[in-house]
Amino acid sequence: MKVTIKKTGINGEGIGYIDRMPVFVPQALIGEEVEIRIVDKQKRYATAELLRVVKSSKNRIRPKCFIQNTCGACPLMIARYPVQLEYKQDLLKQSLIKYAQIDPRKVARVKASEDVFGYRNQFKLPCAMEEGRLVSGLFMPNSNYFIDVKKCWIHEDGLERVRMDIMHVLNTHGCVSYNPHDKKGIRNLVVRGFDNRYQCTIVTGNDELDERLISDLMRIKGLTSLWQSIHTIKKTPEVFGNKMMHLAGETSLAMELDGLKLQISPRSFFQLNSKQAVQLYRTIASMVKEDNELIVEAYSGIGAISLYLKDKAKEIIGIESIKDAVVNANQNAALNGCEHVSFLCDDAANKLTYLSKKRSIDVLVVDPPRSGLDDAMLDCILRSKIKNIIYVSCNPATLGKNLAVLSSRYNVDKIQPIDIFPHTPHVESVVLMSRKNK
Ligand code: SAH
């Protein structure tokens, strides 16, 4: 069966139509004529496998990565980079029109990523045994099939080197992958790095790691912080278990962004592309005017956004639910001499409801997870008198749905998408809003 691809879907796949029914075709680009085999037929849509590209797009390129097709993390790697940016801008526009009827002309061009390869500063990869050796890799999407990732092109080069060095040391010491029956072995390897300094967390069952293993790991060039996380819960999307143990080196990882000093613990979230984090934070700062009394940042992580805004308000309060991140954020405020910036550990909606009743908030910055703002948060914002909101979103669908609600009280003034994850379908956007009838 043949079909012509008309659109790109939210997961980076091509979409064609058969008798007006959408058919999702992974690995196919807009304008291509492709031969397909339907693999799953639902009432309103079907999913197909690409058998052959009959007429290829001029935007198609050969992906650098030879497991691109099976790994699934980088579906857009088959398209030229400027075209990827056009897809992303279009995905954002479509979502904002669909959910919130926002004028697509408000969506600026996507800011390109400075690095297109080697940009990712962290990985959390599962481990498995392959031909008697412990390897790190990925499960194929929606499957139990494990892929040994020998080289990941989107990881920073130094991060890949450290990954190989760690796997080598673990194998030298005879480490094996996790066995759920005896609850022992290595489940995941988590490494994060900035400026050639790396923090490694080994996620294991009930294992006690040998002193010699620990000292051999600490000999790896650049490894400055080593942690173990004990994780014996059967099936969970969480990578880390409840118990975290500091094994060697420094407890947190130090880094610098635009002259700001930041400390990060393993469980704290941080932007995965350091250079694009700078672009993101500068974009946010450019949208906030000077001389505010109070700025509140909800979902503040280790506090980077608040610290970028340090000169723009007399007081800045961040709200974050992960305790380790709040500890980092308050340390970071102190490290940068910001006594007027503080962070509280709480649910964002809970604390914002309290704050907005007591105080007048000039600017609220929100940077929620992919699920977007929950009803309590939306309700609290609508009832408040907050003048300006900056919504940082990593998910156009939840952004669209949330803006539909907020637009009863707020105008959408600017929308600036930024590419943080080249080759993946992820789209990050910064939206500036102002309260109606001020
Ligand atoms: N703005 C930060 C982090 C954003 S990621 C940065 O740029 O680095 C989203 C953050 O929201 C995570 O740190 C997560 O722990 C936190 N979070 C998730 N749900 C939350 C909630 N209900 N209340 C407060 N924080 C929450």
Automatic annotation (TrEMBL):
One of its GO terms (molecular function) is rRNA (uridine-C5-)-methyltransferase activity. S-adenosyl-L-methionine binds at residues 271, 299, 320, 367. Keywords: Methyltransferase, S-adenosyl-L-methionine, Transferase. Its EC number is 2.1.1.190. The keyword Protein transport does not apply. PROSITE patterns: SAM_MT_RNA_M5U (PS51687), TRAM (PS50926), TRMA_1 (PS01230), TRMA_2 (PS01231). This is 23S rRNA (Uracil(1939)-C(5))-methyltransferase RlmD. It comes from Clostridium innocuum.
